[in-house]
Amino acid sequence: MKNNLSRKVAIIGIVGLPANYGGFEIFTEFLVESLNSVFDITVYCSKRSYPVRPTTYKGVRLRYCPVFQANGVQSICYDIFCILDALRYADSLLILGVGGCLILPFLRLFGCRKNIVVNIDGLEWRRNKWSKAAKWFLKFSEKCAVKYSDHVVGDNKVIADYVEKEYNKNCALIEYGADHQFIQKPTAELIAKYPFLTNSYAFSVCRIEPENNVHLSLQAFSAVDRMPFVIVGNWHNSSFGKNLWEHYKNSPNIYMLNPIFDMEILNVLRSNAIMYIHGHSCGGTNPSLIEAMFLGLPVITFNVNFNRETTEEQAFYYSSLTELCEIISAISQTELNQNAIVMKNIANRRYTWARISKCYQELL
What is the mean predicted confidence (pLDDT) over 105-114? Predict the structure, then answer.
């Protein structure tokens, strides 16, 4: 039970709660459910992103940044504002991402003794979408995060190994939970809205970015007309996404859906697929991948070390359009069924909120 002596924890670096944006928001929502009886938690939210602003949610306090956006260039100032505000009362700060961590050296210089835990997310500075200046800044922020925090968290062994080699500092390996997912049968209403639910189909959900290899997935399912391909993403947020939308929107076996934040609907669409396509080429342990694994979906994923580590070398891997087409064409139902069991077993063992929250509790 919480009492007046409860340790005060501030969580910084997300758009806010309730979760309606991305992986870190979903992570925070389920983490606070596990830890709200242990700590006195405050979660920082972007005032501009929440027209309706409750003061509490799932047993934690919500505090709104009145000025800055949580995304884009303003996210740096947003995180710094939230960090400085949290110093007034919090015993521990959990910072998600490195954008605002360039303030940490100054805090330590002026004697800040707060317990600071930073999840450095994926290795953002490696992403091709950033300019040279942006990559330099992100790399510098990463260095500040690692050097001046009390505890560093990596969500993938590849990232943990990188931190220890690059900075000679211990990095806690803590992935994400996925056992909030559950298989749901489609209702008549959803079948009417999404008629592909009555057939076998492949599924993917991701941000529409080149590094998620969305173009390869679309090209493959256009070339191999074995089954429909359903993909959910933010098509209209970039020229890359808009161009793909225009090119493939009339393809008979491709269903391009806009972002779905209703987890119940997303669960229906995802859990009734017969395979999951994961094209991410950089980052760490991706929440959408482990959620698909927990639902018992066979996984076909882009061949990079992050994904191989997450799936313990047990998924189907592709590095090119040709390889993806070959897998889609040749994979048998027996192979899919066997892989589904393997993915589910890995998720049951590694990606549960009980295990993840216990690890964070110890650090905080």
Answer: 94
- Helix ranges, the chain (H): 23-35, 74-86, 104-109, 132-148, 157-167, 188-193, 214-223, 239-248, 263-271, 287-294, 305-310, 321-330, 333-350, 353-363
Compute the mean pLDDT over every residue in the chain, rounded to the nearest whole number. Answer: 93
**127 pLDDT higher than 90:** no
Residue 147: name the closest of 163, 127, 159 by CA: 163
Radius of gyration of the chain (CA): 21
* Calpha distance 61→359 (Å, rounded): 22
Dist. CA 11–CA 114, nearest whole Å: 13
Q: If we measure between CA atoms, which residue out of 282, 277, 206 comes closest to residue 240?
A: 206
Class of the 8-177+352-363 domain? alpha beta
Same fold, 8-177+352-363 and 188-350: yes
Burial 142-162 (b: 16+ CB within 10 A, else e): bbbbbebbebbbbbbbbbbeb
Query: Per-domain residue ranges for the chain?
Result: 8-177+352-363, 188-350
Question: Cα–Cα distance between 168 and 170 in angstroms, integer?
Answer: 7
Q: What's residue 2's pLDDT? A: 54
What pTM did the predictor assign? 0.90
Q: Half-sphere exposure of residue 351, counting CA atoms within 13 Å on the CB side? A: 31
Q: Please state, as a whole number, how many other Cβ atoms lie within 10 Å of the Cβ of residue 259.
A: 17
pLDDT band, residue 1 (cuts 50/70/90): very low
Q: What is the 8-class DSSP label of residue 58?
A: T
- Look-up: residue for tokens 């992403």? 127
pLDDT digits (tens, 9 = 90+) for 208-249: 999 999 999 999 999 998 999 999 999 999 999 999 999 999
If one looks up domain 188-350 in CATH, what number appears?
Answer: 3.40.50.2000
Calpha distance 24→341 (Å, rounded): 27
